[in-house]
Each structure stands twice: as structure tokens, then as C-alpha cells.
């Protein structure tokens, strides 16, 4: 299953040049950039692990790309995403979010249905990756 997550989820994977262009756009808009990673990309899991602190005070995307590549090298079988925050609304608002790495094998999700009283049905998602303990998911 191919996870659709972030701004460019229906495009082919971005090249490093395209990632640099998007980071440059965020920096030109004065949006601080941060890098996050996870091995459990459940749709309701909005909070991923941060790779370092948000990257404030940058003018060029080279520093962000270096951190992206360091995160990719450390976690080669995790999802890695880039986020840019817009602080104009006096609160943390995500202006841009996109994946820069996927694991080589994405096991996907299963849809579960539960029957309730009065023939009421509820649905839930369960990630196949969560059947393995963290750190060992995606063949790590």
C-alpha cells in the first residue's frame, strides 16, 4: 500500500532538487522548517519523532538538506517528512508538509468493522506495522 500523506502525496517521489526548491519556498516565506520521522504512520498519528530542533534562522536550504540526509541515513526504513510552520496566526500552524522518504516495503492498513447495538457499525484502521515492536518494523 502506498501511503498518501502530505502536500505532494499524489506526485511521484520528490528529487533532492525538488525538495530543496520546496524548502527554499518555505524559507522565503519565513516559515521555520522541522524534520520528523516515524515507523508508525497511522493517519491519526499526527505527532512524529522530531529530528533535532526546528531549523530557525536559515536562509538557504543546504542546512535543511544536510539534516534530511542525516535523518535518512540514521533511519533508512522509516517515513521521513518535512514540515514548515507559519507563525503569523500566533500559534503553530502547519503551512507545508511532505514526505521525503518512505520505507522500501509499506505493509499498509486493515479496515476493521465492529457490529454494535441496533445494527450500528463502526470502523477502525489498524496498521500492519504495529504488529511488530517499534524499531523492528519495516524489516529494521
From TrEMBL:
Superkingdom, natural source:
Bacteria
Does the record's keyword annotation contain Nucleotide-binding? Answer: no
Checking SUPFAM superfamilies in the record gives: RuBisCO, small subunit
The terms under GO molecular function for this entry are: ribulose-bisphosphate carboxylase activity
Which BP terms from GO are recorded?
reductive pentose-phosphate cycle
Q: Name one Pfam family in it.
A: RuBisCO_small
Complex formation: Heterohexadecamer of 8 large and 8 small subunits.
What is the annotated role of this protein in its UniProt record?
Answer: RuBisCO catalyzes two reactions: the carboxylation of D-ribulose 1,5-bisphosphate, the primary event in carbon dioxide fixation, as well as the oxidative fragmentation of the pentose substrate. Both reactions occur simultaneously and in competition at the same active site. Although the small subunit is not catalytic it is essential for maximal activity.
Query: What other remark does the UniProt record contain for this protein?
Result: The basic functional RuBisCO is composed of a large chain homodimer in a 'head-to-tail' conformation. In form I RuBisCO this homodimer is arranged in a barrel-like tetramer with the small subunits forming a tetrameric 'cap' on each end of the 'barrel'.
* Family to which the UniProt record says this protein belongs: Belongs to the RuBisCO small chain family.
What's the protein here called? Answer: Ribulose bisphosphate carboxylase small subunit
